[in-house]
Predict the 3D structure of the following.
Amino acid sequence: MHRTIFSTPVVNHALRRLSVIYLRLAGWTIDGHLPDDAGKCVFIAAPHTSNWDLPFTLMVAFALRLNIYWMGKASIFRFPFGGLMRWLGGIPVNREQSNNLVAVSAQALIDADGPVQLVIPPEGTRSKTRYWKTGFYYIALEAKVPILMAYMDYSRKVSGIGPLLLPTGDIEKDMQVVRKFYAPFKGKNSDQFEAAS
């Protein structure tokens, strides 16, 4: 995994303080912490309904002392912002050539030296969608790492870390657990998110 803002010591410390102060002033509460056995894991980032999710996710990651990487469409990594997006933990994804994305992502987690939390929005888009993509599930299954259910509830201004899920290989059963957990949460554009699909 490439070097990011989260692995840059002085910058990380300063931005953590600023993030905590801003979130507090904005009325947000941060809940939970990274479990000891989730140093390497796949984060579900949901609901994902707005461009504002990224800056809030980064601030929450600083507040919780995480080392996150996130996937974004390749177009946002073009000049002149590509270097910045990668430094913020971004990994470009070409949606038209994503057939080996699961294998590549799983191998990156396996090979990573130290804690890594790979953030993936299961909707795969900010647009309204009824069906969640399951790449995050198969990445965790192949890498043999847990799935951590992280959330951002704009209705209550609460963001944090929920329970761990160890994928069993029975995706239908496991996804029922995931959807049930996310059902109460509201994204910024709540009409675009349906957890019970």
